[in-house]
Design brief:
By secondary structure, the chain is α+β, with helices and mostly antiparallel strands. The chain has a single domain, classed as GTP cyclohydrolase I, C-terminal domain/NADPH-dependent 7-cyano-7-deazaguanine reductase, N-terminal domain (GTP Cyclohydrolase I, domain 2), CATH 3.30.1130. The protein contains 4 helices and 4 strands; from the N terminus they run βαβαααββ. α3 runs antiparallel to α4 (about 75-85). The longest helix is centred in the middle third of the chain and has 15 residues, at about 75-85. The protein starts with a strand and ends with a strand. Belongs to the DHNA family. This is 7,8-dihydroneopterin aldolase. Keywords: Folate biosynthesis, Lyase. It catalyses: 7,8-dihydroneopterin = 6-hydroxymethyl-7,8-dihydropterin + glycolaldehyde; 7,8-dihydroneopterin = 7,8-dihydromonapterin.
Length: about 120
Amino acid sequence: MQDKIFLNGLRFYGYHGVLSAENDIGQIFVVDVEMLIDLSAAGMSDKVEDTVNYGEVFEVIKNIMEGQPVNLLEHLAERIAKRINSHYNRVLTTKIRITKENPPIPGHYQGVGIEIVRENK
């Protein structure tokens, strides 16, 4: 199966990070989500009930990313993947990518971050 729903380039301002500067000043986090899902039923029916409402998924991500600060991007990604997989039975696999574009690290780069893939069991 190659069907996917994706949300790319979601931008949120948050105060996550290990360093105190990250907690005090905050920064923009970029989130990309990819959900492996069979979209054939939705393709035939034209009903949102036969797919995953990506507007709802956006709100889930927003609440986590703009919510209580945590130390690690890995923790944020796990929370997002667990929430999606537990709420949407149609999703087979969820991939979460979180990028910090401007972490307090000297150097030149486009961003640093993490990516996880979690199967829905």
